[in-house]
């Protein structure tokens, strides 16, 4: 039996619907980077847990509260990085859509220090 990588275990405890309960998972100076030219009002960097909460609140506003994440795969890369493949589901401009995305997580000293959220935008 293969033991789960500790960074994968850490991310499995993350609940984006209740970030306050996951506060102990984040470094104080955590940064979330979001790249999506289709959402210029949401694209950018968000600092700290409050910044991440602001990011998800903005997504909720532009998707009428329909945004949800379905994890597909998770791969640890060494002792610092983890790559997750997810499908983001939402209602966008009155139609349901699914978007593939990857999130690259940097984990330092057992805390999430940085993340890059990169959705597919051309397919």
From TrEMBL:
Organism of provenance: Mastigocoleus testarum BC008
Matches recorded under InterPro entries: NTF2-like_dom_sf, SnoaL-like
UniProt-recorded name of the protein: SnoaL-like domain-containing protein
Annotated ranges, domain SnoaL-like: 18-114
Pfam hit, one: SnoaL_2
């Amino acid at each position: 039996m293969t033991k789960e990588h500790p960074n994968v275990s850490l991310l499995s405890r993350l609940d984006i619907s209740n970030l306050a309960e996951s506060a102990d998972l984040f470094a104080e100076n955590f940064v979330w980077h979001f790249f999506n030219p289709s959402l210029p009002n949401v694209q950018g960097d968000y600092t700290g847990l409050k910044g991440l909460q602001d990011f998800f609140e903005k997504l909720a506003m532009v998707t009428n509260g329909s945004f949800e994440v379905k994890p597909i795969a998770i791969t640890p890369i060494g002792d610092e990085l983890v790559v997750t493949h997810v499908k983001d589901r939402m209602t966008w401009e009155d139609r349901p859509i699914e978007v593939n995305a990857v999130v690259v997580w940097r984990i330092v000293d057992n805390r999430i220090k940085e993340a890059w959220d990169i959705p597919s935008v051309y397919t």
